[in-house]
């Protein structure tokens, strides 16, 4: 009897929490189809805001910026982070405390401190040398900086999980280091590479604070565009673009679920 | 090692090769983080000790002006504004972390009571909202809590808020936003702890007629402590430095330290003051990390705690 009330109570809390977690997102989706310019009263179903969305050049260019930023920073972070991950594994018996501190620094530093210190630094360097003008370039640099540790840690843990004798075997099999990398290392850590790339990509798309402070006037990403639109005054157009982004996340969630299930079979 | 039989020169040559390998693999990333994060942070700390120039940019001579301003000393004498902001940040962090723990415990436990097949799905359901951008999530709460929405009307009719004020912007909205934002970060480590839970201990407590509360406190709670501590680090430290949520949901009276710092670099420029605030934030972060480590070592038996 007592156990049953406990179980029911738990299930109740679970469902309430789910409503809590999804209500703000569902409200956005619902009101993106509202014909009235209001977030309190739903009048009629309409696609007007979506139509306006695709005619808005600023949004299109913000979307492009987001993609360029996410892809290019992830690629750079993947290469650099992979090298660190492998170095950490190969030399794990040495004292590498300083390296661990360096790698954890971007993770523990509060976003806002990260963002403003890069911004102050870039502005100062630009004043002195004319390099590093705020824009997509500085944003890519900043994003790579916070992506490197995640890539390095994922790759490192994949290497740790491997059988060390594999490396000996590869050494015997392939004479040149290049061949060893191409035919042995890359294929064996491929799952780690894929998940590291997608994590970097997600981190980049998800980031607002660091992008906001390192962005230039022409390089607004989608979150920055949404932010300034909210600051200027709410329009259901934001609901529409936010709904599309929520849709992309939902797709990613479903894909990851299917992917997981296949992986287990 | 295969070099053991070789002459010392071969061995030292191998060492040189290994060191070169270490440099080759680690140096690019290490340099990257050093140039683009360590140097900027060091520069920011230097800025805190400079004086504020006419356009908000830092100037020589070195001074402690920024820290005095941060402590509330201005042209018109001392004002408590910044102190309130700091206290509010601490208070919001504390309240939201406690609330997150209270919600996350039953949720994490509930997931472990479900069938194994469903657990990854349930976890995913908890995590997915946090994949959307935090600006969008805060915007969702703005929509839900604005005046004239059902929730606001309900709060008005009970008399919780003044008529036509709505639930946002307010400190309450900020707390809600923080709990919403950080809940998954607590559920995941707690779930990991619950999944490893040794149920024999709980059984033993029940056999000895322990009340449910005592059984939880003595048999369950200590086992979930590593998860709780890891979750607290993941929730409290970012919550303290939060910028987006107080900015969008809090309004002027809901400002936290992150907003105070950011505003000095965006609107009312005063870089040294902002940098001094950033230093304060860093100190708080490292004290928090250090304290959690100590607690973890004392209570968690020296291991298991992930930090």
What is the total number of structural domains of chain A?
1
CATH T-level fold name of the largest domain in chain B: MetI-like fold
CATH architecture of chain A: Orthogonal Bundle
Mean pLDDT of chain A: 87
The counted number of beta strands of chain A is: 0
SS field, number of helical segments of chain A:
12
**CATH T-level topology of chain A:** MetI-like fold
Oligomer category: heterodimer
> Numbering strands along the chain, what is their spatial order in the largest sheet of chain B?
1-2
Which structural category fits the helices and strands of chain A? mainly alpha
| Helix fraction of chain B by DSSP (H/I, runs of at least 4) | over 70%
Structural class call of chain B reads mainly alpha
Question: How are helices and strands ordered from N to C of chain B?
Answer: HEEHEEHHHHHHHHHH
Total helical segments of chain B = 12
Strand content of chain A: under 5%
Task: Name its key features.
heterodimer; A: 265 residues; mainly alpha; MetI-like fold; 0% strand; B: 307 residues; 2 domains; two-stranded antiparallel ribbon; two-stranded antiparallel sheet; 4 strands; 4% strand; disordered C terminus; MetI-like_sf (chain A); transmembrane (chain A); transport (chain A); Binding-protein-dependent transport systems inner membrane component (chain A)
